[in-house]
Amino acid sequence: MSVSLRSGREVSVAVFREGRVLVMRSSRGGTWSLPAGGVEVGEAVRDGAARELREETGLVVEPAALIDVGYTERYPTSADTSIRHVYPLGVTEVTLTGYAVEAPLGWEPVLSDEHVDAIWTEVPDAIARLYWPHPGGRAQRGVVRGAGPARSARGCRFERCGPAQRLTQSPH
Fold it and tell me: How far apart are CA 103 and CA 54, in angstroms?
C-alpha cells in the first residue's frame, strides 16, 4: 500500500437515511468511520467532501447539497503512518470540517477498497462505534452530534432534505 501526501485539510460526512446514519468498517484495522478523507491541494473543502463521499460510497452529490454541520476540529498530525497519512514538511495540524447529507430512500453504498462493511444505525450507536485511538475518532463523533441540529435547521425530518433531489447514485 502506498502512502499519500496530505494537505492538512480533511473532511467527514455524516450520511443519513430515514433517521439512521451510515458507518463503515475500515479495511485497515477494522475501525468504524464516516466517509472521510483529505482535501486535495487547490480543492475547495466542500468539493473535497463531495469527492470523498463519491469515492468511498458511490453517492454523488453536488457540493451545495452538503449541509455544513458547524463542526470543525483541529488536531496534531501523527508520525504513525499506520493510522495516518504523511503530511508535507511544516504541516503539524489537521483541520477537519464536518458535513451531513440525506441519502435517497433505498440508496445503499457501494464501498471502495477502503471499507469492508457498512451499516445504517441509530445516532447513539454510530457515536459509540466511532471510538478509535486517534483524535479523528473524536472529530467524527462531533460531526454526527453536530449533524442533528444542522439538519433540523434545514427542515430535515428523516427523509429527503432540501437539495437532496440533486443526489444520484453512482453509475458503477
Answer: 12
| Closest C-alpha to 103, from 39, 10, 166 | 166
Q: What is the DSSP string of 59-72?
A: EE--GGGSEEEEEE
Is pLDDT of 1 > 90?
Answer: no
**CATH number of this structure's domain 9-156:** 3.90.79.10
**143 phi, psi to nearest 5 deg:** -65, -45
Question: For residue 137, which amino acid is it?
Answer: G
Q: Among 82-91, 94-103, 105-114, 115-124, where is mean pLDDT lowest? A: 82-91
Distance CA 118, CA 33 (A): 9
Interior angle at CA 23, CA 17 and CA 24, nearest 5:
130
Higher pLDDT, 101 or 168: 101
pTM, to two decimals = 0.79
| Bridge partners for 169 per DSSP | 59
pLDDT at 141: 79
Contact predicate 88/144, CB 8 Å: no
